[in-house]
Each structure stands twice: as C-alpha cells, then as structure tokens.
Design brief:
Shape: globular
CATH superfamily: Divalent-metal-dependent TIM barrel enzymes
Order of helices and strands: HEHEHHEHEHHEHEHHEHEH
Oligomer: single chain
Distance between the termini: 44 Å
Radius of gyration: 19 Å
Number of helices: 12
Strand order of the largest sheet: 1-2-3-4-5-6-7-8
Largest sheet: 8 strands, parallel, barrel
Helix content: 40-55%
Structural class: alpha/beta
Strand content: 5-15%
Length: 294
C-alpha cells in the first residue's frame, strides 16, 4: 500500500468516525425529528405519471437502459432528454454491471469492466443521478472451485479502481448484498460493511435491501452495526418479492433500526406486481405508514 492509499484509507476511516459520532448524537432525536425518507419505485420511465399519481416521489431506473454505457454518446443523449421531461425524477439506478462482465474469478477482466463502469458513472453525473446500486450478482459470482479469498481481493481491487470515478462524477456507489439464491458472494449487510471498509472510499458505500435481509434471516441489528455506511434501501415482500401490502411483511423492526442510525437516504420498492393483488398506491401508503409507526 503506497502513501497515497494509506492517506485515502485514513481519510475514509476518519470520515466514518465523524459520521458515526453524528449518528450517536442524532439517535435520540431521530425518532421524533419528523424525517420521512423519499419513497420511490423501480419502474420504467413510461410509468412515471402513474407512479406520481400513486404517491411515489422518484423512480429508480436501470444503468444499462438509461446510461447505455457501451453505446455512443448520442444514444445516451436521447435518454437524457427523456429523463428531463419526466413528471417525477429518476434519483437512483441499479443493475450496475451486466452478468457476463466478470470482476472475480479466472475470467475477470477489470479493464473492460472499469471502462463500462466509468462511462456509466460519468453519464450518471451528467444526468444528476447521485446513487447507483451495485448489486450485479452475476458479475461477482465466484466460479466453483475458485479461491474465495482471491475473489474477495479481486472485488476490493475493482472497487478501489472505480471509486475515484464515482467521486469525480458526484455519484455514490451503494454495494448491495444479495441472498444466496442470487449470488454466492456478499450475502449479508454485515459482509457488505466489511467490504466497504476494505475499499475505504467515501464514494463507495452500502445498500440495505430488506427483502434480501429477510431471505437470509439477517436481523435488524445488522443495520445498527453498519450505521452510517448505509446510503440506500430497497423493500419487497418476503418470499414472493411482490409489492409490500397491508397484512404482509412487517418492515417496522428494520425501519426502527434505520431510524436508530439516523438514516437520511431514500427507500425504493424493488418488487413484482400482481394484477388484482398489488396496488402501487396502497403499497406506497403502506411503506409510509410502516416508517411512521416504526
């Protein structure tokens, strides 16, 4: 580790310590300070008007669809013009890397992945979208028989490589732990927090998807321990992954933990929809009610 890297890591840890101290000061007040996270939904631009009517405050889009990082600038500019005309904004995106773009294992190609990622980050900055959820379970899946420790090192190296581009673009990457059915690496908020600390860059933070936490039986105290690392949240019904509705999953223990760390990010519904069983307006109202009563 060179001196620049040492100072970068030290700076990150100092920032995290300051953030943690701020959280400690805010914990007592956070439950009563009236903070309400923006509630958004992972839906396409064509649904913007309907989602606004249903009560959502933002859309969460897809990196490949919106930023087309492997396409010429003209393709992106068409999408950018459409974004500017939406009745509610796109404030976050997910689907950072295609599944076939490997960043761990014997076929890892960091040069190709970094080129794609850096273009996506630059275009996110142009579009004024501040949060990219870094799930990409296929890209980070460890091949059978490959050394898990080496894969971890590869992932950390890739994170360190692209984090400065995120910072330059004014974008925060939010690492998303995924359940074991979707990938075999970084399956818990706790594991994700350790990766974030190893990358040690302020533009590389942590995402908490409560659906994945529930699938892995990860308890709300993982949120408490991760603290200020968490910058974005997803929700969906446990098991079925459909839209959260009254009578379904109780998110309040997890929301209470988020209040306890003075969370100031957004909440997106990343879920399926069943005609006649799930209603966007009811789902939105349910999440707001769950937060208010947590």
């Amino acid at each position: 580790m060179n001196q620049q890297q040492q100072w970068s890591r030290r700076d990150f840890l100092q920032r995290m310590a300051v953030a943690g101290a701020g959280v400690a000061l805010l914990r007592t007040a956070s439950a009563a300070d009236g903070f309400k996270p923006l509630v958004g939904v992972c839906r396409g631009n064509k649904d913007a008007a309907d989602m606004k009517t249903a009560g959502y405050e933002f859309l969460e889009g897809n990196v490949g669809g919106l930023f087309v990082p492997d396409k010429p600038e003209a393709e992106f500019e068409k999408n950018l013009a459409q974004l500017k005309g939406l009745v509610i904004p796109v404030l976050a995106v997910n689907g950072f890397l295609p599944g076939g773009m490997k960043i761990v294992g014997p076929d890892a190609n960091h040069d190709a992945a970094a080129k794609y990622a850096e273009n996506a980050l630059r275009r996110a900055g142009v579009a004024n979208i501040k949060t990219i959820v870094f799930g990409s379970g296929g890209a980070r899946r460890i091949p059978e028989g490959f050394d898990a420790a080496k894969a971890r090192d590869q992932f950390i190296a890739f994170g360190k490589r692209i984090a400065p581009a995120a910072e330059k673009a004014g974008v925060t990457l939010a690492l998303e732990p995924l359940n074991r059915k979707e990938t075999n690496f970084i399956n818990s908020v706790t594991e994700g927090a350790a990766i974030v600390d190893a990358i040690a860059h302020p533009a590389f933070r942590l995402h908490a998807d409560i659906y994945h936490m529930l699938q892995e039986d990860e308890q709300p105290d993982a949120i408490t321990q991760a603290g200020a690392r968490i910058v974005h949240v997803h929700v969906a019904q446990k098991g079925s992954r459909i839209a959260p509705m009254p009578g379904g999953t109780d998110f309040r223990p997890y929301f209470k933990a988020l209040k306890g760390i003075a969370y100031r990010g957004k909440v997106s519904l990343e879920c399926g929809w069943k005609k006649g069983e799930t209603d966007p307006a009811k789902a939105c109202a349910f999440i707001r009610e769950q937060w208010a009563t947590a």
